[in-house]
Write the structure tokens for this entry.
Amino acid sequence: MNEHYDPTGYAPVSPVEDPPNGYAQPETRVAALRQALAGVPLGRYDLRIVHWLAGWDDSTARTVVSLLHRARQAGRGEWTLTAAQAETARQAIADACQWRDPAGGLGCGDCLELSVQHDEPRMCDDHQADHDAVLSYRQLDAVLDARQVKLW
Ligand SMILES: [Zn+2]
């Protein structure tokens, strides 16, 4: 399947400069429109409009399918969290950090033994895993903090 077309192969997913060519049966147009709307809850009237759109000429239907796919792609690069949701996510990250590393990196008896043995700070496998997890949680928290959350 050409990556420049929607998954059904019906419509281009790059900017449309000229009317897309080709003829497809209305059922194919409906299938492409439904695929472009995958995961979107649809009401009865939405479905009526999807069928109405499929009755338009093929170039128009292909362009609508293309627009829907491109809108989905653009949306993937945007935050869709509200400020309250982002705050909840950041609190969850803080809780996870506290849970994974309640002693703030002090470790356990095994950590201490390894540190004495190697004459430098060391961590046991469990605490190293906790430490690594906390680092990745904090990186995610920094991303949430740095990116402006879109309010809608
Ligand atoms: Zn340990």
Summary: The chain has a mean pLDDT of 88. Residues 107-108, 110-111, 123-124, 126-127 surround zinc ion (CB under 6 Å). The helical segments are 26-36, 44-54, 58-76, 83-100, 109-118, 125-146.
